[in-house]
Amino acid sequence: MMGYDMSGPTPRFLQIFFEVFETLPRQGPGNRACAAKAFAFCRDLPPSPVVIDLGCGVGGQTLHLAELTTGTIIAVDSHAPSIERLRATVAEHGLSQRVSPVVGDLSNLEQPPESFDLVWSEGALYNIGIESALGVCRRLLRPGGYLAFTDAVWRKKNPPPEVKAIFEDDYPTMGRVPDLLTAIGRCGFSLIGHFTMPDETWWDDFYTPMQRRIEELRGSYADDDEALAVLDQLAQEPEMHERYSDYYAYEFFVTRRVE
């Protein structure tokens, strides 16, 4: 998600926003292939690792993690309806013994320090500032534990003003890959590997179902100008990506806590 000032949105905007995003398989770019590629970098995990998924949303990547490991997973998100939806999904998949969805704030987590072998986070760490988030993750990890996360990065300098504007409110400090690598080292992690996520990770489980959902809601709100205006605003995100995706990307980083 990008380009939305969530610090002071109207109640109607939030209503429509969540009507769109809560129904999607994912709330940001990603897919199982990228999760598997990143997980493969974590070669020294115990046979059944203890994992925490930060900013899990409705849990698209949480389910991937449950397939990739026999360990236990705590899935954390601040939006309670997303957690309720994930709890239902976990029960449907028979995963309730291994996956525990909980409501929590990334900046004030209740989990004890050094209690996880793997911290996983797709597209969420930037919400509290990347270096602050890396500090949170380091405290959660046992010595030698792994952190795997994705973050939006600029691919080119001097993006057009309309491209820069879509990130201004949501992620004004967004950097390039070298900036993230510097932050990783400064915050007590060693880099294991990183890769740019392919463009289909934006579309298959995110923008394509998002566009379908927006069109469904246009029908439901055909006589509601305020709702239609919000839907028009939300529709700008995939449209902008179609035009300017060469200026930015999501990068997957796999790191390890320095003991």
Give the overall average pLDDT: 94
Which class of secondary structure composition applies to the elements? alpha/beta
Helix content: 40-55%
Name of the CATH class = Alpha Beta
Q: Any idea what the CATH superfamily is called?
A: Vaccinia Virus protein VP39
Distance between the termini: 34 Å
Describe what this molecule looks like in 3D:
With 259 residues, this protein is of the alpha/beta class. It has one domain: Vaccinia Virus protein VP39 (Rossmann fold). The chain has nine helices and seven strands; from the N terminus they run ααβαβαββαβααβααβ. It has a seven-stranded mixed β-sheet, sandwiched between helices. Helix 4 (80-92) links the parallel strand 2 (72-77) and strand 3. It is globular, with a radius of gyration of 18 Å. The chain starts with 10 loop residues before the first helix and ends with a strand. 36% of the residues are buried. The model has no long low-confidence stretch (mean pLDDT 94).
Could you list some keywords that capture this structure?
single chain; 259 residues; alpha/beta; Rossmann fold; 9 helices
SSE map:
Elements: H1 11-21, H2 32-40, E1 50-54, H3 60-68, E2 72-77, H4 80-92, E3 99-103, E4 116-122, H5 130-140, E5 141-154, H6 161-168, H7 177-186, E6 189-196, H8 200-220, H9 225-244, E7 248-257
Parallel strand pairs: 1-2, 1-4, 2-3, 4-5
Antiparallel strand pairs: 5-7, 6-7
Helix pairs in contact: 1-9, 2-3, 8-9
